[in-house]
């Protein structure tokens, strides 16, 4: 869970870090195409003297693997990074910053300002990566063919997806308890903390206790970075490269933990992705963040590929559970739970559920969200809600279901299956996996969602 974390061994000049990251951010924002193409085509070997940056990159890599900063063969270090481009340096350094923390060591003499500055460096590093990957998505489609294989190799070499998913999962896990519970030493002592959990608590605490605002800012930026990576993966898959694992199965292997990264799978097909979304939506004290998580999921719908049926099935089941829990908070005398429920929470859940159902059931020409290889073909859920009325949605849904109905015998069998599926256990649905090998993802998702339609209607009627 915390294998991605890096620790500083001495105080860092956060001011210089913020200045350098801010300068990179301004350059990319001003000229995104020119700056990224220049970074991707300029090698660090052109620097005079060429060995300085190469040796620094190699020494930092040695530190990541616990071998110390000093020592090593300098000639081997230079040869290892001779063909490295500046774009790889930018991505690598930003990945270092966003997962680096201060240990609780007496000789560092840390103050609250050092911890706060490090949080700011983490957020700015994520913002730079969001700019890089967002603009790379459009460049991959418009630039020569040589750029797409380079970007794909760069993502694998830097292990970008693995690092980002680990950061998301670790942050959600650190926010699993309410703020008043985490600052309560009596309740906190009941749970045995590991070294990494204690380290995160130390870095996330300021002078007034746990800084939930900074955690939420970091989490929101990490969600933006995840969405940018998902769109970039889809843009790379649209180039029809044989080496990109687009047509593989999206099922979870038996015995594979949902906290382990699976090499060769896109982010939507990773068990970690579904685990972090379901875990975040299961936290009742962070309901104000559920809209951001649902926005991440609905935004990624056109780019999920073979993972679409499995992800839609599980999230729809989870949304049904959340909708059914809402009336319970208003019927009981205990109103303490109502404080953490936003006024528009029910509308947020219904809007996300409507977006998923529309995307899977409507024809591509009628659906607000369309399956497109381009990473820029996203329509936000707010646009879906404003452009799709309730009466039009009902008519489109009826015509789509009727147009896609099969023969009489198959239709009757589907109806009986739907009626029986109403009484199935929710836990069985959440733990089940779909094998979509060799099938059209949208067609498979449509059939799966139709089988869960009675469950969705029952959840809506509970309101």
UniProtKB/TrEMBL annotation:
Q: Where is the DOP1-like TPR domain?
A: 1-363
The GO cellular component terms are: cytosol; endosome; trans-Golgi network
Q: Which domain of life is it from?
A: Eukaryota
Name a biological process GO annotation. Answer: Golgi to endosome transport
Q: Where is this region: Disordered?
A: 386-406
Compositional bias annotation for Low complexity:
386-401
Q: What is the designated name of this protein?
A: Protein dopey-1-like
* Species annotation: Hirondellea gigas
Q: What is the lineage of its organism?
A: Eukaryota, Metazoa, Ecdysozoa, Arthropoda, Crustacea
